[in-house]
Amino acid sequence: WPSLGLDVMSVNGLFSPLFVAGFYYKTFKWPAAFWHGLYEPLIRRAAGLGRAADADDPDEYDKAHAHCDVLVIGGGPAGLMAALQAARAGARVIIADEGPRLGGRLLEERVAIAGAPATAWVDETLGELGAMAEVRIMPRTSVFGRYDGGTFGAVERIADHLAEPPRWQARQRLWRIYARQAVLATGAGERLIVFAGNDLPGVMLASAARSYVNRYAVRPGSRAVLFGANDDLYRTADDLARAGVAIAAIVDAREGVGRSSPHAPVLAGHVVARAIGGRRLRAVEVKDPKDALAYERIPCDLLCVSGGWSPLIQLATHLGERPTYDESRTCFLMAEAPKGLAIAGSAAAVASTADCLASGVRAARAALEALDMKAGEKAAESAIPEVEEGPLGWASHCLVVKSERGKAFVDLQNDVTDKDLALAVAEGYGASEHAKRYTTLGMATDQGKNASLNAAAIIAEASGRTIAEVGLTTARPPATPVSIGALAGGEVGRHMRPTRRTPMYDWHAAHGATFVEAGLWVRPQYYTREGETDWLESAVREARATRASVGLSDVTTLGKIEIHGPDAAEFLNRLYINGWKKLPVGKARYGVMLREDGFVFDDGTTARLGPEHYVMTTTTVNAGAVMAHMEYCQQVLWPTLDVQFVSVTEQWAQMAIAGPRAREVLKGLVGGLDLSNEAFPFMAAREIDFLGHIPARLFRISFSGELAYELAVPADYGLLAWERIMEAGAPFGITPYGLEALSILRIEKGHPAGPELDGRTTARDLGLHRMMSRQKDYIGRRLAERPALLDPERPRLVGLKTIDPAARLRAGSHLIVPGDDWRAENDEGWISSVAYSPMLERWIGLGFLKGGARRHGEVLTALELLAGDGRDNEIAVEVTNPVFFDPKGERLHA
After folding, report:
1. What's the Rg (C-alpha) of the chain?
2. Residue 249 in contact with residue 224, Cβ under 8 Å?
3. Least confident segment among 4-8, 177-181, 566-570
4. Average per-residue pLDDT in the chain?
5. 8 Å CB contact between 452 and 323
6. DSSP letters along 567-632, please?
């Protein structure tokens, strides 16, 4: 800070002997009040940690699912060969690789396959795989987690590489892949060596230098020193020299290696003790470990380091498996592959390209055998092609070079040094998991892949143990960084709760409907006709027309649950407050559910269509909650009951035909079914053929208080059924009505709905105490009998109508005795629902009042606190029976 050219913060380097592991924990403890305001902001700024974004993510994300027989993770030589073998056997194959192009190290090494450059073999293989219908090739896709049941998580980076991605295109897609078998061909990662100055610009891995010159045609330096303890050094020397890079020396830590190079002298048995430079590398100091005082300085601007290779096997350990240390190859391996996961190529410590290709074939055949799929007659076509490549290296026993001059970094991302780890051991944090947390080793984006083995070697030496005894820290998903946006996918904003539309949505929209959200659904609120300027005008017209003749309402959004089984009646008996065992086939019944605390949970009708077949309806917004409640009851409370159920809300379109002419409208549409009051009385339910060929269900139930039917047809026939009913009702002036008119109709009849079932009311509060059976037990029965809930002064459901026909009630108003001051202690109750009643020609409402029914006829003041100017709106109301219209139900039973 403030810049690389003028780094004022570099002064901290002078105090580095003080800033050791655990420094912050020990130093910034007092005074405690300074931590959040002073210490933490300074430390975070010094560490380069920023502030979490407070703006919306401008990018789009997506989620997807995929199924396959064989998932191949990694597109190097082993992965490509495994995918080819499995695909030729007829398996459904997905091959995923995090690079933009599959091929792995074959794209970055000078390797010949079948007499041609390896890239030609890669292109030929991808061409064959791409032509197979059962193969999905997924570049730029990182498989980050392995989970139970053969499930894998992956992130596909769709637009990260585009400077200006299209507005419609997702940036990333989260995949959930279900694989019957998987092949892990993630390869291996080259290790750095721990020595002083190993973080200078110009110090890089030997394989990275080869990638620069072979894949990107970029010279990473002009004069290079190579340092390591394996044959990869000589391959790197060949490639760099071929690209015009001068090789100053090859420092091979192995003694008696017997290797030479035409490009530079080989210093066998020597090590690089220190890299020298500031903003870039200028030279290295080389020494003979047997002569601590003999140093040789070699000028260079590039140091290529190879500390051996570590198989990338993190995915193989995500379900609790532990790797073991292989001393001969100086790496951790899976001694036994996990079930359902074959390990191939460098991930299994296979070094040569030819061996990787053979390993891929073996892994694919193992997966096919587990699937009972034979390799087939084409197996011979997967014969391993001839491979020509340079010298190979794998093991490297040179992991750490001790030096007293300069910092030797183990974890380059979190600046953890060898001395930090030695201090952690000295202070009692010698376990690998403890050292990780004490020093932050391996807690950056690489999750320890680059530093874990070097760290284990340092901890082992400092604690007098072996690397195998120290072990690695536990690898957990995600194995690679995953953006939170990808995890959330498109489930943000309105997409978090997907909008559901009924099959008749387009008809509603074309006929002037204004929609309102009801749970996850959009429902018609009212239909505007020409000349109507106010929603209330439209809703009142619809309600009046329904009472006068016939109306049609879309009630598809009601929750619908099919219930089957010998114990279905007993199950319902325990859910509802009223009895269900004697309900005849062909009848429906209104029921109320309580929560365990005795308060009303939901209400609706349930019809018995067969001896062991019931269909339940729930309120729109509670459909999911009721289903979850039933599943809990079945699985936890009563697992011995033989009952099954499933939500069919989206499978059936449902519509209510209500009004005095409803029977006349329907009689020509239901295949000659007798709809008379005697043959099909109130609460009848029957499976019928609508229009003579559509399987349907007809219920004589009513939320409006009118002669009414509800017709349910398969969702695909919903629009057809609606249009046929509108055609049949045209001579009677049939009127579609929305949620506002439905609210008017139900309030006129005193039917409680969502505003009354708000989680604070009991069945007694709603006047449904006669339904509460004393002959059986049910959920909530005991707690519904608590003394406070039986208190006669508890607010109960009442009707309210204005004394002045022109006065307008508002829901949420509170009730007080006329003349009382507006104080909380004078509150007598509240209004839950209001409507303008065309039948009473005034505003009416439902509410809850202390004392309930005994106060019918009393005049109270409805008080509303208006927003804005703070004025109080006082309206005189009369307390009445909640049933304002047709109290004897004569129209209902007509």
Report:
1. 38
2. no
3. 4-8
4. 92
5. no
6. THHHHHHHHBSS--TTPPTTEEEEEEEE-TTSSEEEEEEEEEEETTEEEEEE-STTHHHHHHHHHH
